[in-house]
Amino acid sequence: MTEEIIIAGFGGQGVLSMGKILAYSGIMQDQEVSWMPSYGPEMRGGTANVTVILSDERISSPILTQYDTAIILNQQSMDKFEPMVKPGGLLLYDPNGITRHPERKDIRIVRIEASKEAAALGLRKIFNMIVLGGYLKVKPLVEFENVILGLKKSLPPRYHHMIPDNEKAIKRGLEIVEEVQ
Amino acid sequence: MKKELRLMKGNEAFAEGAIRAGVDGYFGYPITPQSEVMEYLTAEKPHERTGMVVLQAESEVASINMLYGGAGCGKKVMTSSSSPGISLMQEGISYMAGAELPCIVLNVVRGGPGLGTIQPAQSDYFQATKGGGHGDYRLITLAPSSVQEMYDFVKLGYDLAFKYRTPVMVLSDGAIGQMMEKVEIDEQIPRTQDEEIRSKYPWATMGKTPDRERNIITSLDLDPARHERHNLKLQAKYREIEKAEIRFETIQCEDADFLFVAYGTSSRICQKSIQLCREKGIKVGLFRPITLFPFPKNDLKQVARGCKGILSVEMSAGQMIEDIRLAIEGSVRSEHYGRMGGIIPSPIEVAEALEQKFIKS
């Protein structure tokens, strides 16, 4: 198994930390992992993305231009990364703020109303964990208990009181993700 | 016992590796994309863990000269920077090579020339492997291609630096520095006690004892005959290093018709390009030099025997290709493919470059 993922959205949406939690979850499951962020001045208030790879084998390139899965959280990222999903791959997106929905016919498309749900729960900070839950429902490559372990490892101890909210958000994501095509 | 596993950035792994290797002092000045080295060290407070000193100097020139002082006392000292900062350190590095002082200098390379860009590059190969500063000297140059190697090469670097009394350059790049991977963490190695330094490194300036002449750490000698003898001694040391310290890795070279030669981030990209080429029936392997100086000349020539072509893949205009051609001595056609200015080539484009240069042409 090798899963090559791009997670892309605005800076501040928790794109990088979502990737980190997913990668740490992979480690908890004895997988090889890599996490490669975009870095530089373009991140300040602009778009942010991270490539995460989970694999049973040694990971080759941490930098890719084709992905098994694209998790897309804003329009700019949709424009950039929809064409880079491998045929037969997965595109997961939050429709909030999306004006042009995905058009490809050769990929699986799934959506999750994560920002709406985060607002409804009054927990805007755990928006990214709702998205992660949605992803794990569609691609259960990492077991739930390992995700919780990964979450504990990723968060500094001063944020550990937020783990129950994060866990709740992941579970909510598992429930509300919807198949589009 | 199962080792502790952590998800870390390359820069952080290097910093943790430094604490665990029992480093006495880190002296640095911030620059992207390596600032996490000092940030991590500052947050970890290693003076509380091992007594290690972490100091932000007023400049890169100051940092490297602090290394000179620390290394002169037989201490394990290091600095890290990125390309423009490393250029500023060259005088000090040359002095340390001349005075035969061990240390580790990490270069997390960014695109140049000049202030360039903060994105990854490999355009400091010449500077690292051919000397960098003035005078006839070489640096042992280690090229990590994973976060684990960023961690491991601290310990390896000091083993080599003290064995040969010479500065070691760890030549990384912005991608390896910024990405996170799984790292196996070792047990803490205690810092070397002063008594041990006195007995293991009799050259160190740890205080004169009545039974010997005073130790002098210098790169200056105004007597040409004596200074030539010193140069010959340095050269003999570099030849010894070339004999004993070559390190490299081969991947899928057994049946390969073509070879990628690449180090660092480029070698990771090439591993994916190999998969893409092999899916098309083109048998490609990877020769990855781990020591860039000493360059694995004979081993490359051996591995390349019978191959139809070699493609050097570098994030530069083509620097390592010169060492490849010297090694191969015309026995196999060798070409270069590279991107510059902070652009990282994609695995697909590297695979296509190989086809373009050797198969379609």
The helix-and-strand class of chain B reads alpha/beta
- Succession of helices and strands of chain A: EHEEEHEEHHHHE
How is the main sheet of chain B built? 7 strands, mixed
Helix content of chain A: 25-40%
CATH domain fold name of the largest domain in chain B: Rossmann fold
Q: Report the CATH topology name of chain A.
A: Pyruvate-ferredoxin Oxidoreductase, domain 3
Percent range for β-strand residues of chain B: 15-25%
Which CATH C-level class of chain A is it?
Answer: Alpha Beta
**Strand fraction of chain A:** 15-25%
CATH superfamily heading of the largest domain in chain B: Thiamin diphosphate (ThDP)-binding fold, Pyr/PP domains
Radius of gyration of chain A: 15 Å
Strand order of the largest sheet of chain B: 3-2-4-5-7-6-12
Tell how many strands the DSSP assignment of chain B holds: 14
CATH second-level architecture of chain A: 3-Layer(aba) Sandwich
Which structural class best describes the helix and strand composition of chain A?
Answer: alpha/beta
Characterization of the model:
The complex is a heterodimer of chains A (181) and B (361). Chain A is of the alpha/beta class and 181 residues long. Chain A has a single domain, classed as Pyruvate-ferredoxin Oxidoreductase, domain 3 (3-Layer(aba) Sandwich), CATH 3.40.920.10. Chain A contains 6 helices and 7 strands, in the order βαβββαββααααβ. In chain A, strands 2-3-1-4-5-6-7 form a 7-stranded mixed beta sheet, sandwiched between helices. In chain A, helix 2 links the parallel strand 4 and strand 5. In chain A, helix 3 packs across helix 4 and helix 4 packs across helix 6. Chain A is globular. Chain B is α/β, with parallel strands linked by helices and 361 residues long. Chain B has 2 domains: 191 residues, 3-Layer(aba) Sandwich (Rossmann fold); 112 residues, Rossmann fold. Chain B is built from 15 helices and 14 strands. The radius of gyration of chain B is 21 Å and the shape is globular. The N and C termini of chain B lie far apart (54 Å). The interface between A and B is medium-sized, with 23 and 26 residues.
